[in-house]
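A.,

Following up on our hallway conversation. Structure tokens first:
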């Protein structure tokens, strides 16, 4: 990944992606009278005349190598082969155009952030935010109102945060947008989360499980009652794993109820319920109602507090299989989190079937990753270097990966099935089990991160936080 190919946002948005690719031009500077571009075109004088008319301002072209122009284009602009020429118009259809750009980039989130003189628009690509557009501070309020109206929010309320939803329907697909506003120093920040509506393509076998991990996970799902908890930070793929699980469990003979905030995918055959805390319909209330709905399987979007955890355990004790997520750093620290919430250890030991932690890791581009000798300086201070770990791979960037060095992501898992020995550990509140996990050959997040480095799937930089885990 070469930062030398970065173009400032104020220059980048002077032309559309299609114009950049069609004319093979890269903006490099701007003043009041003229904009200067780099190009690899042969007929520079003719092209200057055409661009003067097309762009409506004076254009100066300078020669650049074809390889560099290609790298500039791929690092800064992305273009769908079927898309028509589009220009981001802040005065009409802005939201539609912005969403289409995000979809073309395969972005998961859009951030609109106001500052004193401008608003920046960032897209989250493969888990990382990248600034894509800049909007003047005079145009921003109009855009905010446009988004809030479509999301059904109060445009007069600017001092409190608001949450809403936009349903987008077009010829190719339907999808939902979760809208969140936040009052900041210079105005309201808005985050748009793009939600997929169809879970039919989800498959557990394609998410990142090893064969052994998938076998352990499927065994836990065969139990008729108990709790399966998936832990990890926001954006680690927990919800995707849950929906992949529900797809397997979804049978005609099974009554499945879910309480979610928000409903991110739709699955036919499953009764999905949207959380509405503003009217008192929270997780504990929904769970109490669920127990009177003759469920076989219950999915709780997230265990946030003692009440929700207590109701989930009650459901497991009364013969139901409960699936949920929780925010912890590892599979075993889920136990500590539940105890901190006030759940008695004996109840945790008696109901927890499996604790699983996961992270999403970017994958190196196979066309441009560079193999090099490993250096101890690149690793955490107390990290014990395995004998097999002689080399590692660096992201360099190429046309195939848009000069980022990475293509796609996969989940890394840590699964701890709760057996009789671990039940005793939990009841006795003995939470240091690193030696036991090694004895049982249970692969931790750290172990799987090391394996990915050795296999050349990802870089040290990408999984560095996992290498610092205690066990």
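Then the amino acids I'd put at each of the 471 positions:
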């Amino acid at each position: 990944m070469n930062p030398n190919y970065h173009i400032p946002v104020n220059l980048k948005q002077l032309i559309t992606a299609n114009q950049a690719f069609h004319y093979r031009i890269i903006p490099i500077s701007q003043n009041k009278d003229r904009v200067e571009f780099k190009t690899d075109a042969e007929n520079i004088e003719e092209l200057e005349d055409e661009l003067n008319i097309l762009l409506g301002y004076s254009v100066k072209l300078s020669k650049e190598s074809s390889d560099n122009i290609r790298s500039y284009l791929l690092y800064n602009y992305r273009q769908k082969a079927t898309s028509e020429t589009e220009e981001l118009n802040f005065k009409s259809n802005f939201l539609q155009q912005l969403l289409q750009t995000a979809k073309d980039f395969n972005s998961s989130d859009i951030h609109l952030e106001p500052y004193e003189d401008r608003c920046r628009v960032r897209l989250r690509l493969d888990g990382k935010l990248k600034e894509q557009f800049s909007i003047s501070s005079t145009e921003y309020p109009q855009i905010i109102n446009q988004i809030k109206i479509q999301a059904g929010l109060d445009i007069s309320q600017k001092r409190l945060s608001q949450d809403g939803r936009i349903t987008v329907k077009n010829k190719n697909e339907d999808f939902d947008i979760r809208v969140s506003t936040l009052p900041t120093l210079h105005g309201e920040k808005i985050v748009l989360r793009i939600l997929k509506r169809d879970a039919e393509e989800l498959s557990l076998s394609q998410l990142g499980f090893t064969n052994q991990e998938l076998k352990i996970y499927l065994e836990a799902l065969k139990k008729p009652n108990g709790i399966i908890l998936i832990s990890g930070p926001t954006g680690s793929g927990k919800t995707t794993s849950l929906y992949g699980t529900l797809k397997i469990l979804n049978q005609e003979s099974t009554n499945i109820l879910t309480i979610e905030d928000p409903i991110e995918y739709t699955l036919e055959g499953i009764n999905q319920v949207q959380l509405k805390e503003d009217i008192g319909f929270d997780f504990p209330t929904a769970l109490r109602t669920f127990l009177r709905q003759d469920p076989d399987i219950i999915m709780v979007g997230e265990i946030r507090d003692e009440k929700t955890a207590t109701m989930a355990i009650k459901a497991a004790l009364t013969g139901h299989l409960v699936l949920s997520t929780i925010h912890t750093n590892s599979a075993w620290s889920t136990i500590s989190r539940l105890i901190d919430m006030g759940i008695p250890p004996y109840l945790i030991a008696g109901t927890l079937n499996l604790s699983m932690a996961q992270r999403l890791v970017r994958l190196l581009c196979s066309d441009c990753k560079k193999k090099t000798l490993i250096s101890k300086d690149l690793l955490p201070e107390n990290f014990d270097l395995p004998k097999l770990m002689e080399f590692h791979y660096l992201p360099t960037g190429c046309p195939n990966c848009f000069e980022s060095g990475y293509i796609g992501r996969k989940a890394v898992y840590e699964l701890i099935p709760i057996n009789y020995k671990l039940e005793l550990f939990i009841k006795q509140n003995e939470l240091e089990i690193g030696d036991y996990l090694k004895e049982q050959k249970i692969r931790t997040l750290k172990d799987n991160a090391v394996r990915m480095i050795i296999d050349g799937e990802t870089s040290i930089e990408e999984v560095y936080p996992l290498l610092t885990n205690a066990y």
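The radius of gyration is 26 Å. Curious whether your intuition agrees with the design.

B.
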